[in-house]
Amino acid sequence: MSDEIKLNQLPIPDAALRDGDAVEMLRVWIAERGLHCSLKVGMYRESTNVSEERAWGTILADAARHIAAALHKGYGVDAATSLKAIREHFARELSEPTSEVRGDFVRKR
């Protein structure tokens, strides 16, 4: 038996493979009964006049719309209904967290 760990990774989108300037911004895992993230924080702060908070708000909103569209395409769930539910649960989780955020910030050089 190999010591290599098999990861249940998602495929990289074709557009990211074609674009030499593509940047991975967020990777999220459920592991050891919790959420674990790798984030590219600081890119906007260091290279544009856009605030990190505004950029991440846009990224998270776009991700929510992609999730609603995927639920519609894959399971026939109404995208507007899904997006409304995602928004409601997101707001509730921000105001009443079900778990604490733990971990470290490591700056990649």
Question: What overall geometry do the principal axes of the alpha carbons give?
Answer: globular
Largest sheet: 2 strands, antiparallel
Widest sheet: strand ordering: 1-2
Low-confidence stretches: none
Q: State the order of secondary-structure elements, H for helix, E for strand.
A: HEEHHH
- β-strand number: 2
Helicity, as a percent range: 40-55%
What does this 3D model show about the protein?
This protein has 109 residues and is mainly alpha-helical. The protein has one domain. The chain is 47% helix and 11% strand. It is built from 4 helices and 2 strands; from the N terminus they run H-E-E-H-H-H. It has helices at 14-18, 43-47, 52-75, 79-95; strands at residues 26-31, 34-39. Strands 1-2 form a two-stranded antiparallel ribbon. Helix 3 packs across helix 4 (79-95). The longest helix has 24 residues, at 52-75. The termini are far apart. The relative contact order is 0.09.
Offer a quick outline of the entry.
With 109 residues, this protein is mainly alpha-helical. 47% of the residues lie in helices and 11% in strands.
Strand and helix map with partners:
Elements: H1 14-18, E1 26-31, E2 34-39, H2 43-47, H3 52-75, H4 79-95
Antiparallel strand pairs: 1-2
Relevant terms:
single chain, 109 residues, mainly alpha, two-stranded antiparallel sheet, 4 helices, 2 strands
